[in-house]
């Protein structure tokens, strides 16, 4: 199921963050915060995006709750028992994209027996084994005449999706598929941006690291933005979306926040 929110409105998750934060402030702290806001208001400018709303065509921001595959559910249930692991957030995040990504981890979960590993290898190229992988693949496939920007805070999910696109569509890295991560030098990044934003280029999808693609990067060639991970810092999501939804964008921008249920 999906939840949609238009630009400028506070999302349910934002409201939840506000409520959660407010429970940690007593009355005196709340009064001091309000006093601080009053003092800094004359010289601290908070940009609310009014120019973008007046200038650009529009932003449709959707939260999609996706049902995991049987193999994903099995892995997530096993991970739920590993409550004290430092790697837990990472494992849950990549499993929600595709369970075979657990095999790429430097430290694998203890429940991954040789038999379990063999099962994951068997489904490594199976799109239906990973619900976020399947959604991203179908979106890219259906986005005729539009370019897609896919964000993840981890590299392995992007690499895996790129490999599947090469296998299924016979696409080539550097032509239809572009990557942007921390390994790219500044000159190489600028060249990738130029290619991706060129309407006449063959580029169809840019697979981007959330950390590498931050402030100052213009990716207005994309009109579809996929956020593979659940990022608890809302500013990270806003920065990612702002790569495409910014001055120079000629199309409506559609954003998909992917969440695996269960």
Within CATH, the superfamily of the largest domain carries the name P-loop containing nucleotide triphosphate hydrolases
Got a strand count? 7
Q: How far apart lie the N and C ends?
A: 13 Å
CATH class of the largest domain: Alpha Beta
Percentage of residues assigned to helices? 40-55%
Beta-strand content estimate: 15-25%
Contiguous uncertain segments of 5+ residues: 7-25
Oligomer: single chain
- The CATH architecture of the largest domain is 3-Layer(aba) Sandwich
| Mean residue pLDDT | 85
The major beta sheet can be summarized as:
7 strands, mixed
What is the number of domains?
2
- SS class: alpha/beta
CATH topology of the largest domain: Rossmann fold
How many whole angstroms does the radius of gyration measure?
Answer: 20 Å
Protein name: Helicase C-terminal domain-containing protein
Domain Helicase C-terminal: 115-262
GO biological process, one term: gene silencing by siRNA-directed DNA methylation
InterPro entries: CLSY/DRD1 (IPR044567), Helicase_C-like (IPR001650), P-loop_NTPase (IPR027417), SNF2/RAD54-like_C (IPR049730)
């Amino acid at each position: 199921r999906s939840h949609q929110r238009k630009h400028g409105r506070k999302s349910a998750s934002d409201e939840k963050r506000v409520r959660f934060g407010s429970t940690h402030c007593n009355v005196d702290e709340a009064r001091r915060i309000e006093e601080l806001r009053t003092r800094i208001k004359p010289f601290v400018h908070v940009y609310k995006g009014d120019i973008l709303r007046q200038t650009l065509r529009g932003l449709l921001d959707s939260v999609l709750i996706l049902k995991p595959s049987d193999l994903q559910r099995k892995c997530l249930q096993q991970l739920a028992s590993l409550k004290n692991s430092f790697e837990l957030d990472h494992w849950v995040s990549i499993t929600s994209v595709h369970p075979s990504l657990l095999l790429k981890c430097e430290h694998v979960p203890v429940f991954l027996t040789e038999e379990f590993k063999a099962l994951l290898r068997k489904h490594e190229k199976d799109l239906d084994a990973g619900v976020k992988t399947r959604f991203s693949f179908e979106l890219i496939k259906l986005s005729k005449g539009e370019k897609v920007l896919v964000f993840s805070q981890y590299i392995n999910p992007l690499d895996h999706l790129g490999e599947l696109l090469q296998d299924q569509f016979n696409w080539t890295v550097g032509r239809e598929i572009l990557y942007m991560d921390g390994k790219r030098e500044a000159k190489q990044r600028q060249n990738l941006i130029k290619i991706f934003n060129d309407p006449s280029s063959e580029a169809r999808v840019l697979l981007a690291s959330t950390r590498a693609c931050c402030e100052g990067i213009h990716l207005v060639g994309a009109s579809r933005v996929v956020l593979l991970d659940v990022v608890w810092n809302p500013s990270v999501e806003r920065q990612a979306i702002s790569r495409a939804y910014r001055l120079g964008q000629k199309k409506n921008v559609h954003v998909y926040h992917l969440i695996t249920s269960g």
